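Is this the right way to post structure tokens for a design question? Let me know if I should format differently. Anyway, here goes:
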């Protein structure tokens, strides 16, 4: 009886010690959490204080009234009517439209090229596999800025003649850009479009390849045993199972492309970043301009990520019901 009582006492003591230890751990976690909050809030306070002092010294203050003053600079490319007498706000909106145009055009081309290269990388054709692997290696190991310079100065401006390729009045490539069925793309836009598309397609190809290889080999053997061709089995069996693994990586590459589009200033394309830079030089409103730039890309990235998340949920739900 005394032995049992001793065991119960020992168990109770260990249980009490464990509870006390857990409480101490929780208290420590709360303490460190509060410390982190205090440090973070202090840093934000110091930043705001320094910002206020610097603005007072410059005499500029913090406001957005300057947005409604005349911009007094021209834009080489604008989707809507624009003149130098228009406001800074309108100039920024034009730059935003220019950014949207090149980003979504590049997303489409990069996905198209990347998908083809990814399929070639995983196919049975040794020559196509070697070519696609070389393409991916070269593009991924070369800086994007260098590629943009190549497309702009060599790919377009480097053309000696005004006309490089012409197919009737339907398609034309020259040092002024690309003309397709009456649609004129400037050399700046074209260089940025091809640069972003080619660079991102190499990364998308690896995402596609990784997604396809994530499907177990048993699935490949299953559709082959049913007599399905490689092409039909790939598109009807393998790709639907690979999509949940592909979408997250694809989303990251889309977001990277959107952020990389700010390199448009290197080839003289009038995107929102380049226009922001011009406005800062004219007005000195660096803080307000960067806030506008940050909010613009935050909204764009949220749009891309949420759209891809919805697409991913649709794909996952469709697999549950199939």
């Amino acid at each position: 009886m005394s032995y049992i009582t001793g065991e119960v006492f020992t168990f109770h003591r260990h249980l009490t010690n464990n509870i006390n230890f857990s409480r101490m751990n929780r208290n420590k976690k709360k303490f460190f959490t509060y410390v982190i909050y205090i440090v973070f809030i202090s840093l934000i306070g110091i930043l705001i204080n320094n910002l206020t002092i610097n603005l007072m010294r410059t005499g500029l203050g913090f406001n957005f009234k300057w947005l409604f003053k005349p911009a007094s600079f021209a834009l080489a490319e604008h989707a809507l009517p624009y003149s130098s007498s228009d406001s800074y706000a309108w100039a920024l909106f034009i730059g935003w439209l220019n950014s949207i145009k090149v980003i979504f055009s590049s997303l489409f081309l990069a996905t198209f090229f990347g998908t083809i290269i990814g399929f070639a990388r995983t196919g049975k054709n040794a020559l196509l596999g070697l070519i696609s692997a070389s393409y991916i290696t070269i593009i991924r190991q070369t800086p994007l800025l260098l590629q943009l310079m190549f497309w702009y100065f060599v790919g377009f401006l480097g053309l000696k003649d005004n006309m490089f390729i012409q197919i009737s009045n339907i398609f034309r490539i020259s040092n002024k850009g690309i003309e397709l069925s009456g649609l004129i793309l400037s050399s700046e836009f074209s260089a940025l479009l091809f640069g972003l598309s080619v660079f991102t397609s190499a990364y998308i190809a690896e995402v596609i390849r990784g997604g396809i290889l994530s499907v177990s080999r048993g699935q490949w053997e299953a559709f082959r045993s049913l007599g399905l061709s490689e092409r039909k089995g790939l598109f009807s069996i393998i790709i639907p199972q690979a999509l949940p693994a592909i979408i997250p990586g694809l989303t990251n590459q889309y977001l990277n492309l959107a952020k990389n589009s700010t390199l448009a200033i290197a080839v003289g394309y009038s995107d929102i970043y380049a226009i922001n830079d011009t406005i800062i030089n004219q007005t000195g409103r660096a803080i307000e301009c960067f806030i506008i730039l940050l909010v613009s890309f935050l909204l764009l990235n949220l749009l891309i990520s949420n759209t891809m998340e919805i697409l991913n949920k649709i794909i996952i739900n469709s697999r549950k019901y199939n």
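Format looks fine. Someone answered above. Worth noting: DSSP finds nine helices and four strands in the chain. The mean pLDDT is 83.
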